[in-house]
Amino acid sequence: MKRRTGRKLVFLGPSLNLAEARGICPDAEFHPPIRFGDLYALSCDPPGQVLVIDGVFHHDTPVWQREILQAMQAGWQVLGAASMGALRALELEPYGMIGLGTVFEWYRTGRIEGDDEVALMHGTAEMDYRALSLPLVDVRHVLAGLEAEKALTLAQVSGILRAFKRMGHATRTSSALFALVRAQAADVAAVRARLSDPAHSLKAQDARLALQVLAGRSPRPAATARWPDPTPPPEQPEALTQRRMYPLTGPPIRVADVLDVLARRPETLAQPLRESRRRWFLSDWNRITAKGPDDAERRALAVRHATELAAAQGVSLPRWCAASAMRDEELPAWMAGLAVELWLAGQSARELGIAHPLHGKEPSLVPLALVDWMRHQGVEPPPEHRASTGQMAAWLVQAGPEFFGAPDYHPDIALIRTLAANGQLARWRHPPPARPASEAGS
User: Fold this and answer.
1) Distances from the Cα of 87 to the Cαs of 123, 238, 320, in angstroms?
2) pTM to 2 decimal places
3) CA-CA distance, 293 to 279, in Å (whole number)?
């Protein structure tokens, strides 16, 4: 497992007041409720610790389980408590995510089930995520305490909870709860007093506990992965596009935002798209024919190429990689096709056994390798594209790996890797801010 830097990230919303949370764990970085992409963005960052407390549920895409798994596989320790964190910890505890607090234990032991137990409506960040409805787990906790004190009977608590759970989480307000309490002829004043006391919020209690664990004030339970490690995930364009780049100038930016800018100028993507297809075919040719560079040669060629690009910009290789949204160890995989291209430049067609009568006097061996790939795969181009190896290779690249059902090719992933291998991501500059409408030209 990679060494952690000690960086601590907390995703917090309505479960606990931010000022109180900062007081418990002052060295943590606090972020809004977690959503899809937040952990993918950490892919190039040195691993540390993540505490998930709150997260989005219905109005936005929740954080994916696979996203958390990928973070843990990259060396991050992930803890969960109170709300979305408790839910994801329940699902991923077998793989090493650490669950903390009573809500997590209630889920784990089957006392509660369903994400509606912790869901609630809340305000925006500007409103300090003020709760606009009541989480069912807090109501359970309050009523259980009153029952233990004999302020409510078991029958009253059961009746209130059954009716309250039937309501949608958005309509579970305090006024709706008090109406149900009255319908059970129970003590409304006692419920109101207990509910209004922040000390009786179960989610807040669990959030405090988790922050104390993160701060090192409480013992941290060990991860108890009981199942085998998950199989390596298939490459996910979502994960890659949500990564952060660290440009040589300006603040970090998501790869997706760069692609959005480039997509408005399609001409800037035409050549990288062709290169991404061509390099996939070359890498696959290398694989199926055992011709071309071996693993060590591909790695050396990739590192040499990237080092030259970094030197041209006056930065170290790790800094160049960070600007390109990749980790150092990903260089060989990201540049495999390019490495084959570079390797072919120093070879001869006759020695490789890929000479072709229609190649003519073209100096590059790349078309020959592509035609050799077609020969091994039993692919025949249409008659109108058979005049030369150059034409046959151009047809193959235009058709693309998807046309031949390549399961490991994804155009977005291939495009991002090509932009990185070409140095275009590392050279990225934030576009200038748009001028106000009053200054815009006609």
Assistant:
1) 21, 22, 38
2) 0.72
3) 14
